[in-house]
Amino acid sequence: MLPTGGWYxxxxxxxxSLHSRTQLSKESIFxxxxxxxxxxxxxxxxxxxxxxxxxxxxxxxxxxxxxVVDQYTPPIGLPRLREAVAEDLGVSPEDVVxxxxxxxxxxxxxxxxxxxGDEVVMFEPYFDVYIPQTRIAGAEPSMIPMRLxxxxxxxxxxxxxxxxxxxxxxxxxxxYNPTGSVFSRSEAEQIAALARKHDLWIISDExxxxxxxxxxxxRFRELAPERVFTVGSAGKRLExxxxxxxxxxxxxxxxxxxAGMRQWSSFCSAAPLQAAVxxxxxxxxxxxxxxxxxxxxGRRKDLLEQGLxxxxxxxxxxxxxxxxxxxxxxxxxxxxxxxxxxxxxPGSAFYLQNPAPRGLFRFAFCKTADEIAQALERLExxxxxxxx
Length: 388
Fold this sequence. Notes:
4-stranded antiparallel beta sheet, single chain, 15 strands, 14 helices, Aspartate Aminotransferase, domain 1, Aspartate Aminotransferase, domain 2, 7-stranded mixed beta sheet, alpha/beta, 2 domains, about 400 residues, globular
């Protein structure tokens, strides 16, 4: 026993240590750049959280729910929210699991679908949580680089070559973070066919499903409902990323098993916020909120893209999400924060096994038009300064 008072020596050489998996828990690039942005008064076009507040109908629904729906919900989710998600997506409520955001949904699926000795095929660039979640589950990622010409392209032959007897799943996002690209129907059909051929699960991260600028994205579950798990997010749809309300649509008959796994993490997400989202989802659909949101983001996308091009920078037009990629050769992300007052995400953060395209950065345009315009002005001044 340790002494109850006075000074005592601690033998650091023989102290208990944390498990090696905590090496996966380093600060994410998004938190890092946001912290730097706050410290240096920079405009944050790095982390993807909206500057605008959530819609009034969502906030009012939350006010009505607080004090009424305050206790634990079932781990599978508040019944009325499961029904609202199912109605919106055209699926059975029996196949819907409510989670504490899309990140917990992906974690629950990683814990449920693969383990030690397994492989998970995914594309590079990738969203940062995919790798640590895969490895925490004991599996290893197998990375397929996307091709970058005038746009981002999927290398489907490389995808098939990467599939081995150890492969358990294909993990992807549509619309795609960080590139802003959207899988074509032909690409989606070929991926679904590969999953059937090799008897693989597909985890389709569709948290940006309502943020697109042309045709609606293909829903992978419509192509292979028996093997597709779809991840969704109220935070992305309703501009409330901190609420942490997400969902999983499972293949028929598997929802209770997935809910059984996620009960050991958060048990349930915030009950009044579940109730608020349940009320808000049909309102958003009926009032045209998503269309207005797309139009608003489209204007801000154009503002950012045209501004970057006017500076002589190469951009890659997004078809969805609120992210845009561009090439800024020979620039450093941390120096941009400190010296230009603009925070963006370096492309290297989205690569594991292959080199990132030289000078690749990701910009978030889920900010106000004024913030985007100010960021462009600062970037223009900085580029002139370093060329002088």
